């Protein structure tokens, strides 16, 4: 009897355990949550193809188109002139920039000129007797000879006998020696080659100047050039004489310039081509830093969008039936912030601003002032 009761109790315990376990399993099963459908609010734009000007950005510093580095070719003491040799001093063309004391050298030049005059005068009696038809032109030459002026050119020798006679007396040799001395004497005075301004002075009045010494720099402040280096891919777009828009780095002043020269060779190291922009404006100074936009060409039937909207593989997002899709495009030109595209049909709806986490097939809705965003962009 006892065994029967124990068996019944065991069976009941087993059944109770099974029931309890089933209850635990059923309680763990929860209903699946309903996934909320998220719709991104986006900014859109409708494509309208038009003519897009291709602007190539560049920058550089201004340098005077005409500039001269002043060097001494002779030695002597720097004598003061009518104007001080100081930076900022303006000179007109032909005015003396630097006057070096040449009194000693001048005396040697005068001695050589006097010797030439005496040599010609000594042959005049022989010319009267042996070459009477040549006497008058040499007499005229002597009459025009002035020791205080530049030595005049020798008369033209019209016959072989005259040439032998004059050359044999050493007159031609003496003449060219004198002209050589006169050329060197002229180097004691350095004159302004054009109207301009002294920008650098490396010596002062009274100082001893040595041959080969740099004395300063002189520029024409009316015309400047800006050297720019552009990628070789733009070489075919550059045109001499084309107008260029420039502005200072503060973007407060605008200037007009034009391409004056384009280098025919490409820098092998940087793979860039050098162009020069000529600028004329009274507000400009040498060394001023400017930014330029070169009008390279105009691209027909194209659009311009932010570079942030471009995807890998030359693709962009479009909106079709409230869903994002991807299309292939043809990039024509990249600037720092934008890209010019072709092959985007008119009327296509594209993103106006990039969307974080965007993918093809994403549900979206256009932004409006009355709409509320369900997710941050």
UniProtKB/TrEMBL annotation:
Coiled coil: none annotated. GO terms for cellular component: efflux pump complex. Gene3D superfamilies: 2.40.30.170, 2.40.50.100, Helix hairpin bin. InterPro entries: Beta-barrel_RND_2 (IPR058792), MdtA-like_BSH (IPR058625). Pfam families: Beta-barrel_RND_2, BSH_RND. Residues 227-297 form the CusB-like beta-barrel domain. GO terms for molecular function: efflux transmembrane transporter activity. Residues 68-215 form the Multidrug resistance protein MdtA-like barrel-sandwich hybrid domain. PANTHER family: HLYD FAMILY OF SECRETION PROTEINS, MULTIDRUG RESISTANCE PROTEIN MDTA. This is HlyD family efflux transporter periplasmic adaptor subunit.
């Amino acid at each position: 009897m006892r065994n029967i009761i124990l068996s019944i109790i065991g069976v009941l315990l087993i059944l109770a355990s099974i029931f309890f376990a089933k209850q635990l399993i059923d309680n763990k099963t929860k209903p699946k949550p309903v996934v909320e459908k998220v719709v991104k609010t986006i900014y859109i734009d409708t494509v309208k193809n038009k003519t897009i000007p291709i602007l190539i950005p560049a920058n550089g510093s201004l340098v005077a188109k005409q500039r001269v580095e002043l060097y001494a070719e002779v030695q002597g003491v720097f004598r003061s002139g009518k104007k001080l040799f100081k930076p900022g001093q303006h000179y007109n063309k032909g005015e003396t920039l630097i006057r070096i004391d040449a009194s000693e050298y001048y005396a040697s030049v005068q001695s050589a000129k006097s010797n030439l005059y005496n040599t010609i005068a000594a042959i005049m009696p022989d010319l009267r007797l042996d070459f009477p038809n040549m006497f008058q032109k040499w007499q005229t030459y002597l009459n025009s000879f002035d020791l205080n002026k530049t030595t005049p050119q020798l008369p033209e020798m019209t016959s072989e006998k005259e040439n032998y006679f004059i050359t044999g007396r050493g007159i031609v040799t003496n003449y060219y020696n004198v002209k050589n001395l006169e050329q060197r004497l002229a180097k004691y005075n350095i004159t302004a080659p054009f109207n301009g301004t002294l920008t650098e002075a490396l010596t002062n009045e009274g100082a001893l100047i040595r041959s080969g010494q740099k004395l300063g720099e002189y520029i024409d402040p009316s015309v400047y050039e800006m050297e720019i280096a552009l990628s070789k891919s733009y070489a075919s777009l550059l045109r001499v004489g084309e107008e260029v828009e420039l502005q200072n780095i503060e973007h407060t002043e605008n200037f007009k310039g034009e391409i004056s020269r384009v280098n025919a060779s490409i820098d092998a190291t940087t793979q860039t081509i050098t162009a020069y922009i000529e600028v004329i404006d009274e507000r400009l100074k040498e060394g001023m830093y400017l930014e330029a936009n070169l009008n390279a060409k105009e691209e027909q039937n194209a659009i311009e969008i932010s570079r942030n909207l471009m995807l890998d593989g030359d693709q962009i997002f479009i909106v079709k039936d409230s869903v994002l899709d991807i299309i292939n495009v043809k990039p024509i030109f990249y600037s720092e912030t934008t890209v010019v595209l072709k092959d985007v049909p008119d009327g296509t709806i594209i993103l106006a601003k990039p969307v974080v986490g965007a993918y093809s097939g994403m549900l979206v809705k256009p932004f409006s002032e009355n709409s509320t965003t369900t997710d941050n962009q």
